[in-house]
Each structure stands twice: as structure tokens, then as C-alpha cells.
Amino acid sequence: MIKYLHPLKPGARWRETLISVVIKTCGFSAIVFVGLIFYFLLREGLPAFSEVKLADLFAVRWYPIEDYFGILPLLSGTLIVTLGAMLVAIPFSIGTAVFIAEIAPHWMRDILKPLVELLGGLPSVVLGFLGILVLTPFLRVYLGLSTGLTALAGSLLLGGIAVPTIVSIAEDALDAVPQGYREGAWAIGATRWQTIWRVTLPTARSGVLTAVMLGLGRALGETMAVMMVTGNAPVLATRWDSIFMPARTMTATIAAEMGEVASASVHYHVLFFIGLMLFLISLVVNVVASRVVFHQKNRSERVLS
Amino acid sequence: MTLMALLTVIPILVVFGYIIVKGAPAISWEFITGFPREGMRAGGILPAIVGTFYLTLGTAIFSVPLGVAAAIYLAEYARESWLTRLIHIAIINLAGIPSVVYGLFGLGIFVFFLKFGTCLLSASLTLSIMTLPVIISSGEEALRAVPQSFRTVSVSLGGTRWQTIRRIVLPQALPGIITGVILGLERAAGETAPILFTGAAFFLPRLPNSPFDATMTLPYHLFVISTQVPGMPIQIQYGTALVLIVFVVGMNIIATFIRSRARAKRQW
């Protein structure tokens, strides 16, 4: 850290101090906002516990109009759609990341990277919109379902939304692997694939894992695209083919019902409670993701020193 | 592996191509500058375009000064300690919060608690908190990328911390910061969930006059006309999607352009 000088003129010193106070305050703003968000979610969400019995809150029927506030169908909806999205996204994104980082020639990299970033910047409403018009009829026709608005459609779209996030971070991680590792592998006769699978990927393991977790976080939090294509039926998934039936995620529930809710009613508090759960789940995912990076870094530092 | 990459890239191109092809017929001068008629089924989408523009501007007004200042703090003022680690964790968490939870927060604090009501101000404030982590982390990275030698030279000439930042470090890091800002704003422009209950309105007969007016916006408009309005001509839906994409992709292209030009002109 550099040791800066203090200004000599008293007026300038005063100004310097003022500016550093302002900047320090702004620096803490992130903590302030996280705390504020947590506080508000607690404030409006905890009353749900006193208004709805715990057993009813975790029941299997979500039908707010008739005072059924069981959130299990919503949890199962989020679980199925997100899990399906990860199953779709992980192979494609890791494959693409490996391709961009290891196999593609430089000119192709310079086209592919921005293209993937472009997909990442696409608003989710646009993807949901295309999902309704193109994906769901396609699923309906080719899978012989009664409707295309299913959890599967949501998973496919969500996977598509998570892929750019995973690809860009995983690609950075693969890029960061020192060239010496690859050259060492080539020196003892490894083929390109052997190098990638046994040397490069394992080295970049923590970065790739971080990428996947951040993609998971993105998929968990996605609202609009899933709301438009999953059918929005809060049905508990009980059979293996539930993925071919409509479902509803927690995020879609909040988005769909918040507009029609009376302030400070039971429904309002329960919706905030769901928001609180989403906040906590994403908190856990993010902390685990950052822990994975730190943990791995420490271990490899110990090994190399 | 090549197959995987192709399978990922081709849908991207298909998505863009599809919307461009199907949406282009709807684009006309009247579409972009006219008001909706017949319950959105005809006419133009000017209020939505203007609304999105105002919203993006409002978000920039609140998030850029705060975010850049926070980035400056983290890169130039803060020492490595548990406090700075906590700030970084907070930023990571802010970045990961679902957008609809931001909408809930905005509803709770700006619409109800501070009694701003459903308006541009509430929506802008909500979106700016959402954009903050992007601006702070890319800003911090841009500032850290400036070589330390620049700062030591400034000290050797008698510069104070703020003088160094303002006259040397900040201008050098500016392209990187601007890229981050534009990418963050691009995301804010396309978001629907945070503005659903904090500022978006479905139909307004005139353009918003003050920050306390609700506003139509492009993403919300697209969402409503594709899911809630029966008998909406497909043409208009695709046209709206196209305008939204052009807006977002335009920002992306500007950011990429700034980034590559800065990389070429870099002094280190």
C-alpha cells in the first residue's frame, strides 16, 4: 500500500479528509444495502409465521384465494426446473468453455466470446417470449403432450440463460491455467484430449465449480422466462414424468401474485416469506461458491510452496 | 466438444435471426414514435421506449456515483482486512439476489415505507441497487489494473491520494469503468421483475412528466402483450421484442467498442 503525503495547505487537507469520508461511506454502501434488504424481508416476511401455522405453511396445497398457503409445490417447482436447467446447462457450457479456451483458433475465440456474452445480456422476457411462441408448441407437438407449458420448457430456457454465465467464468478459469502445465503434459506424450481432461480441467476445477454455482444462482433467481413458459400451476411433483407437466417456481409466484395482494394481508406476508427464502438460498449458494474458490486456492498454495 | 460449442452458438444466432426477421416488418416510423391505440393492438410503442430510456437514465444517476465511489474506496483507500472482505462478500451477495426479490424490497421500502408510490423514482432506485454490484466490481477491477508505478510517480511529484486518483488513476481506468457501467445499465434496461410492482404501468395516455409518474417500459410491455392481452397481433409482439433487443444489443456493442479501443490505446 502506498504511503501518500498530506497536503500542506490547511484548506486542502480539509478537502482531502472530506472526500475520503464521502468515499468511505460509499464503500460501505454494499453492506448497508444487503443488510437493508435482509431487514425488510424479515420485517414483512416473519409475520407469516404468526399468521399461518407452520404445518399449513409447509403443506402441499398452494391456493391463496382459499387460504391454502402450503409452499411445498412452489419449492418442488423451483427444484425441478432449476435441476433440469443445470442438467442442460452444465454439459453445454463446460463443453463450450473448453472449446473456446483450448481448441478454437484465436480468430474464432474473438467472435465466440462476445457472442456468448451477447446471449448473456439478452433480457429474459425476450427468451420467455420466444419460449411461448416457438419452444412450447415444439414440445407439445414432438412430445405429444397436452400442453407445451411445462417444467421441461422452463428447464430448457433456464439452461440457456445459465449457459453464458457459466461459460464466461469457466473460460476465464481455463485460461488462467499456466501454459507450462499443458506443455509439461505434452512433453510426456499426452494427446490434446488427455491434456484437457487430466491436466487443464482438474487444475481449473475450482474456477469451473465457481462458474457452475454462479450459473445455479442465476437459474434459481430467474423470474420472467420461467413465469412465461412453465404453466404456473402450483402442483407438487410426485411422479417421474412431472417434468412434462406444468409447474410453478417460487420466483414466478411472487411476480405473479404480488400485484394483486393487499398490503399487510396474510398473502402479502407469505409472499415476502417466500422472497426471504429465495434470499437465503441465494446467500448460501453464493457463500459456498466463494468458499470453494478460497478453499481451493489455499490448498494449491500449500501444495506449490 | 466442437459439437457442444456449435449447439450452444447456433441457438444464439437463431434467436437473433428469428426476432429480426419476424420483427422487422413491424418497424416503421409510426411504430417507434406513435402511441398505442386500440388497447395496444395497433399504433406505436413510443411511451415504452421513452419509459425505458428514462428508467435507464434514472438508474445511472443513482448507481454510477455511488458505485464508482465505492470502487474507488475498495481499490485505493481500503486496506486488506475483515471489513473489506465483508464488503466483497456483500457485493457478491447483492449480485446473486434474484431480481424479483429486488422487486419485493423496492416495493417494501420505496413504494410503501418511503411512500414514493409506484413511480419512476421507486423503479430507478430499485434498479440502481441491483446494478451496484456490477459497477463496483468492474470498477474496482479497472482501477486495480492501473499499474502501481503511476501512483508512485504521482507521490514522488507531491500528489496527495485524491489528487492521484482524480488526475491519474481515474482517467486511466475510465474506459474500464464505463464498460462496466454500460453493461450494468444494459442489464437494468432489460429487467422486468424489479419494476413489476415498483414503477411499471401497462397503459398511460401520455409520457411521464415527473419522477413520480408511473411509466410504460419495453420489457414490461413485451411481457404483458405476449401473455395477458388476447388478440394481440404477432407482428407487434415481435416488433416490440426487436426494439428491446436493439436497445440492449446496442449498449452491448458500445461497451465492447469502448473496451477494445481502450485496450489498444492503453499506456501500459
Written overview of the protein:
The complex is a heterodimer of chains A (305) and B (268). Chain A is mainly alpha-helical. Chain A has helices at 10-27, 29-45, 47-51, 54-57, 72-103, 106-121, 124-143, 151-175, 179-187, 192-203, 205-221, 224-229, 250-257, 266-304, and strands at residues 62-63, 68-69. Helices cover 75% and strands 1% of the residues of chain A. Chain A has a two-stranded antiparallel ribbon. In chain A, a hairpin with a 4-residue loop joins strand 1 and strand 2 (68-69). In chain A, helix 9 packs antiparallel against helix 10 (192-203). Residues 300-305 of chain A have low confidence and may be disordered. With 268 residues, chain B is mainly alpha-helical. Helices cover 75% and strands 1% of the residues of chain B. Chain B has eleven helices and two strands, in the order H-H-E-E-H-H-H-H-H-H-H-H-H. Chain B has helices spanning 2-23, 29-33, 46-77, 82-96, 99-113, 120-145, 148-156, 161-190, 193-196, 218-227, 234-265, and strands spanning 36-37, 42-43. Chain B has a two-stranded antiparallel sheet with strand order 1-2. In chain B, strand 1 (36-37) and strand 2 (42-43) form a beta hairpin. In chain B, helix 3 runs antiparallel to helix 8, helix 8 packs antiparallel against helix 11 and helix 10 runs antiparallel to helix 11. The interface between A and B is large, with 89 and 86 residues.
